[in-house]
Amino acid sequence: MSIRTYKPRRGRVTPRQAAALDLHDGLLIDMDDAGFTLEDEWGGLPVIMEIGFGTGAATVEMAQQRLDLGLLAIDVHTPGIGDLLHRVRAAGLTNVRVMEADALEVLRAMIPEGSLAGYRLYFPDPWPKARHHKRRLVTPEHATLLGTRAKPSATWDLATDWAPYAEQMLDVLDAHPMWEGGVIARPSERPITRFEQTALDQGRAITDLRYVRTAD
Ligand SMILES: C[S@@+](CC[C@H](N)C(=O)[O-])C[C@H]1O[C@@H](n2cnc3c(N)ncnc32)[C@H](O)[C@@H]1O
Q1: For the CA of 195, the nearest atom of ligand 1
Q2: pLDDT confidence of residue 84
Q3: From the CA of 51, how far away is ligand 1's center (Å)?
C-alpha cells in the first residue's frame, strides 16, 4: 500500500452533515462505481479535480463562478464531505461531484489518461517534520500520476502557507518534464478560506503556484 498523504481523523458528524451524506441524488460518487465516466457526469464539460477541499467553502464559490467547468471534489474527511454536499445542494449547483476517497487512488483507479482539464491543490497538509516529508502530496511520483491523467495544457493550481513546502513544490515541478510554470500572484478567483485566514493571522505568507501540462 502506498504511504498516506493524510492523517486519518475521526471528527464528529453533525446531524446536518449526516442528513447531507444520506441523500442519494447522485452527487456523491463511490470508489466502486464501475460505470463512472467524466462524460456521463459532466456531459463534455472540462473537468477539474480538487484534492483535499476541507469544508468546501472555496469549492462552492469557485464552482458558482465557473459553471462552464465540472468539478470533482475529493477529500477523505467525512464531516467535510457532508458540509460540501449541503453547500452544493443549497447553492443548486449541478457542476460539482464529490468523493470520499484518497484522490491518488481515484486517479489510479477511475480516471483515464489524458482526461482532466486541471487540478486544484489548496493548502495540502504540510507535514512539517522531516520524517513525515514522504507523506507530502507534491512528489515526483505524484506529479507523474497527475500528469498522465491530465490533458495537454491542463492547469495545476497550488497554494501553501508553508514556505519549505512551497520550495519543495518548486523543486519538484520545475524539474518535472510534464509540468511547467512557477509562482504566480494570488489569483483573484481563489476565495480566502478559514484555513488560509488562520495562516495569515499567524503571520505566514501564502505562495500561489500555477503549472501547465506540457505537450508530450
Ligand atoms: C490542510 S487541509 C486544507 C483544506 C482546504 N483545501 C482549504 O484550503 O481550506 C488539507 C485537506 O486535504 C485532505 N487530503 C489530504 N490528502 C488527501 C488525499 N490523498 N486525497 C484527498 N484528500 C486529501 C485532508 O483530509 C484535508 O481536508
Answers
A1: 9
A2: 97
A3: 6
Residue with cell 469557485: 62
Q: How far apart (Å, rounded) are the C-alpha atoms in residues 190 and 30?
A: 27
151: Cβ contacts below 8 Å, ≥ 6 apart: 46, 114, 115, 116, 117, 213
Each residue's pLDDT tens digit, 126-164: 999 999 999 999 999 999 999 999 999 999 999 999 999
Q: How far apart (Å, rounded) are the C-alpha atoms in residues 208 and 52?
A: 16
| Residue 1 confidence class, pLDDT cut points 50, 70, 90 | low
Whether ligand 1 lies within 6 angstroms of the CB of 127 is answered as no
pTM equals 0.97
CA of 114 to the centre of ligand 1 (A): 24
Rounded Cα–Cα distance for residues 172 and 167 (Å): 9
Structural domains of the chain sorted by starting position, each given as residue range(s) with its CATH number in brackets: 102-213 (3.40.50.150)
Q: What is the pLDDT of residues 171-190, one digit of tens each?
A: 999 999 999 999 999 999 99
5 neighbors 124 (Cβ within 8 angstroms): yes
Strand partners, 97: 72
Report d(CA 89, CA 95) in Å as an integer: 11
The C-alpha angle 136, 138, 144, rounded to 5 degrees, equals 130
